[in-house]
Amino acid sequence: MLSIRTSLNKIPRTQLKLCVRSLSKIALPAVPTAHAKPGFEPYFTASYINGQAVKSDSKEWFDVYDPATDVVIAKVPQSTEAEMDEAIDAAEKAFQSFKKLSVIKRMELTFKYVELLKAKTNELAATIVFEQGKAWSAAIADVYRGIQCAEHACNVLKETEMVGLEVSTDMETKTVREPIGVVGSIMPFNFPVMIPLWTIPYIIATGNTTVIKPSEFCPGTGALLAEIAKEAGVPDGVINIIHGKAPTVTKLASDPRIAAVTFVGGNNAGKYVHQTATKHQKRVQCNLGAKNHVVVLPDADKDAVLKGVVSGAFSSTGQVCLSTDILFLVGEAREMIPDIVETVKQLKAAPGFEDGDFGPVVSKQSLERIEAVIADAEAKGAEVLVDGRLNKPSGEEFKNGYFIGPTVLKGVKKGMRCVDEELFGPIFTIVEVPTMEYTIDYINKNEFGNSVAVFTQSGPAANKFTKEINVNQVGVNVSVPIPHAAFGFTSNKNSFLGDLHFYGPTAFKFLTHPKTITTSWKNMEHHP
Ligand code: NAD
């Protein structure tokens, strides 16, 4: 059986330390090692303002659920206007001194942050499993991918080095890169550690400060990441965490003290953030939604395809912006269908703290949406080759969890939700097509440009595909071509709004202004 769990670095849960978290001012529960049972006493999600974990004074609190059991595990506030102002003030004040810290010192802080993130991987992963629902192995991968960005941020010396030229005799011009200021950051639910780490380490390395709003579905890692920064020696006020829904997003996108905004999430909220922030003259980067296609040519290596299907469609329960939506089988590649179906049938949805291949989806609404997408396809004549509605974990404890087993549809067409919408769950569709050219044409007409892949053993075919496809993150025999931290997340079309992409070399450009300084030491008579 192909298992996501065995393919990723798994740390035994016995190594999880049951310890009381050290956040000051408010009590937080022990690091979770098991799912919540009915009667669990919910904890209050900490905000983190000016180096302190604080409990909000808000009268409005939202429920956070354990997706494996549907039990309320936490309360997350709609941060009050005063708290949002306090966080932005703290970030603005901290910026005045933090920007003056030498780049060597900031690099040291970033290295220390990496070291502590590694040491606290289990604690972060446990919080992800508890609040977001991922399988343990996927939660570990979430943290590791984030740490790779933190490691890359340590390249700040090289990435922000000044360049200069003697432009005329005894006259030099140099460009230095200076930090931009307070950055507002808005997070999605699906990677509660990796995506904040697309921003936080680069903030530290470049001498900026930030106010971050985690997703209201899984807000708990926010304060932990801020606390780890403090432990690394990052000054108070550099990393601040506030919470809530649209009012917090509007505040971050419009407050005049904020210089730049980063957003990751769906297209509705993302377009709103881009419009609001640009209207207020802010620099913005928005990573948005997707519709991802994987193309299998007849000469593809079958084992590679099967592994690609498993990681592409089911890793992190398919709640990945690069997850496979449509698997195009070109010509004779259709003969792989029975093996694909058999492989998928072996996969098991299970609670994240138990053994399985992937966890529940994040929310009841998400589960209902995916079930409705399957029902819609079925009603319009699609074939359900593997039906996740019939393959859920058994037992009383998890009967209310947001589980859906692996699902494969075939015989789909435009007008069905499974073709027209982003799936964002453990489900994909198989479409048989005559030629690779057909798929290139189809994919290029799609509005999104997040991820595409081709499976083939032919160099010329792969070469043609990568050159002609208009999607800027392409995999060849790699179903989830998320670029390593060193390269940056290069999505295009309606999957991205802005000019400078997340992480990689463009992260340093996004977070800094170029300043040119022209100096003349000509005709100076008073030298010693
Ligand atoms: P979402 O858009 O619902 O939420 C993202 C953030 O926006 C959250 O913090 C949320 O509180 C806020 N928000 C939601 N609705 C809002 C509104 N009406 N006004 C103002 N703010 C609002 O996205 P999600 O469900 O958390 O994440 C899933 C989506 O994110 C998918 O579409 C996925 O493709 C996308 N995503 C993209 C990338 C990428 O790098 N391209 C990465 C991860 C997720």
Automatic annotation (TrEMBL):
SUPFAM superfamilies: ALDH-like (SSF53720). InterPro entries: Ald_DH/histidinol_DH, Ald_DH_C, Ald_DH_N, Aldehyde_DH_dom, MeMal-semiAld_DH. Pfam families: Aldedh (PF00171). Keywords: Oxidoreductase. GO terms for cellular component: mitochondrion. One of its GO terms (molecular function) is methylmalonate-semialdehyde dehydrogenase (acylating, NAD) activity. GO terms for biological process: L-valine catabolic process; thymine catabolic process. Residues 54-517 form the Aldehyde dehydrogenase domain. It comes from the Eukaryota. Signal peptide: none annotated. Belongs to the aldehyde dehydrogenase family. This is ALD6 protein. It comes from Cyberlindnera jadinii (strain ATCC 18201 / CBS 1600 / BCRC 20928 / JCM 3617 / NBRC 0987 / NRRL Y-1542) (Torula yeast).
